[in-house]
Amino acid sequence: MRYVIVRDDDTNAFTPAQSLERLYRPFLSRGFPINLATIPEVTTNATMADGRPEGFLVKCNGTKVRTMPVGANQELVQYLLQNPGYHIAQHGCYHNYLEFDRAERDAIARRLDHGTNRLLEAGFPRPRAFVAPYDKLSSTSFLEVAARFPVLSTGWFEFRRLPYAWWPGYLLKKYRQAAHWRISKTLLLSHPGCLLSYQRDYGTMLDEIIRHLKVDRLTVLVTHWWEYFRNGKPDELLIEKLHQTASYIASQPELKVISFDDLANANLPLN
Length: 271
Hints:
Helices cover 32% and strands 18% of the residues. Strand 5, helix 3 (105-121) and strand 6 (129-131) form a beta-alpha-beta unit. 40% of the residues are buried. The chain is globular and about 50 Å long. It has helices at residues 17-28, 74-82, 105-121, 139-146, 167-176, 205-215, 236-250, 260-265, and strands spanning 2-11, 34-38, 41-43, 67-69, 86-91, 129-131, 151-153, 181-183, 186-189, 218-224, 255-257. Strands 1, 2, 5, 6, 7, 8, 9, 10 and 11 form a nine-stranded mixed sheet that branches. A two-stranded antiparallel sheet has the order 3-4. Helix 3 (105-121) crosses helix 4. By secondary structure, it is α/β, with parallel strands linked by helices. The protein has a single domain, classed as Glycoside hydrolase/deacetylase (TIM Barrel, Alpha-Beta Barrel), CATH 3.20.20.370.
């Protein structure tokens, strides 16, 4: 058996419920869980490295507040709670640029705990997985996240950013050429990049996804809901690629779609 985790990033207070429904009904109808890396209290002026507004703020509509908790969007919250196939992971706190690439332990701890509390206030279960904005964490952030979450999902691991005590485990992971590893009670997952993205070649996208699904024991497929609705209209071809992915997985009896929660609850083979 090989395993697939679908991770969609950047759900926040401005995410339209109908956008998620459009994207993930073919998954939910098949009983496939969807892991939503959810921003607990999104910064309304969040920008990318080049200063452009973040794509997940497409429905911000000129709001003047500085931050907005996800619980403020009750239509979204009720939709997610009524569809138990969605699993909520914590995606940072405010999603400020590189907000967990810092050394101040107290500030990191406050953001982690504040983010979790915002998700609980919205009515979601306590998140068991953490996703750092931009896949960047300092060594202190790694330690604080591992103390709170049984699963950390990121893109890659940089030796110089890891806590010193983790170096032997990381070197063993590298020696084994493993994508995923464990430190104490925390699973550390990497992924092969955002394979479902408008920045990828649509002509080879599905083939690349299938290649990983055929080889990797556990594949984390990462995508971003807002990429499918750029410029205020749906990207029908990209949506089709997403739905083709669901159809392919459903046709392969050796593939099983799981959630981060499933992974935290069971001792599944990772590599």
